[in-house]
Amino acid sequence: MEHCPPWGRVACTGHRPQHLPTGSQQWLFGEFIRIAVRLREEYGTTIALSGGAAGTDLLWAEAAEEAGLTTWLYLPCPDLDTRWPRPWRNRLAAAVERADRVVMLGTRYCVQLLHERNARLVADSEAVVAAHDPCRRSGGSLSTMRRAWDQHRPILRVDVRNRRTTFVAKRP
After folding, report:
1. What digits encode the pLDDT tens for the residues 46-68?
2. Superkingdom of the source (predicted)?
3. What are the start-end ranges of the E strands in 21-167?
4. Would you state the pLDDT for residue 70?
């Protein structure tokens, strides 16, 4: 891996659109821009890592780009978006086109590749932004947060239900 500042690469995990509280996407996008700018200015972040999924992942990639960060996409497979609504498919295509790096982990969709993608995001990052609804007690986002905690990554939790952002002080 190339040398980066202490938090040179920051990954993001979070919920798909259907699991975000109603009306929270616009707030989350604005919060991601604010976070990305602060990470760039205060923590030396230059690269935003995104899993490319509809919802949080693509919102993070778009916000990070708007904040002037380089974006890397970690996609489980080329057919990730096969069952998505057209607007999210278009957003993924645009994110792939704009990304500075695209890592494709497999050739066909399978659930294991989603877990592998999340593991790679954490492994390749120095910190993790996690958009999380505290009412959700299971799923890939929470699993990724726990992986990040276990690998001693700082976690900036964006509580999408209560609309506040804090550092995680204990294992999720």
Report:
1. 999 999 999 999 999 999 999 99
2. Bacteria
3. 47-50, 70-75, 101-104, 127-132, 155-159, 164-167
4. 98
pLDDT of residue 2: 44
Question: Of the candidates 106, 93, 95, which has an alpha carbon nearest to the alpha carbon of residue 12?
Answer: 95
* Confidence bin at 169 (pLDDT 50/70/90): confident
Which residue is listed with tokens 């989350």? 28
Question: What's the pLDDT tens digit per position in 5-34?
Answer: 589 999 999 999 999 999 999 999 999 999
List the strands of the sheet with 47-50, edge to edge.
Answer: 101-104, 70-75, 47-50, 9-14, 127-132, 155-159, 164-167
Residue 143, pLDDT > 90, answer yes
Sorted by where each begins, the domain ranges of the chain are 9-167
Residue found under tokens 């700018």: 37
| Contact by Cβ (8 Å): 117, 135 | no
Mean pLDDT for 100-125 is 97
Give me 75's structure tokens.
């996609």
From the DSSP assignment, how many helices (H) and strands (E) are in the chain?
A: 5, 7
Q: Are strands 9-14 and 70-75 parallel, antiparallel or unpaired?
A: unpaired
Please give the single-letter amino acid code of residue 109. Y
Collapse the DSSP code of 117 into the 3-class scheme (helix H, G, I; strand E, B; otherwise coil) and give the result. Answer: helix
Contact 39, 154 (CB under 8 A): no
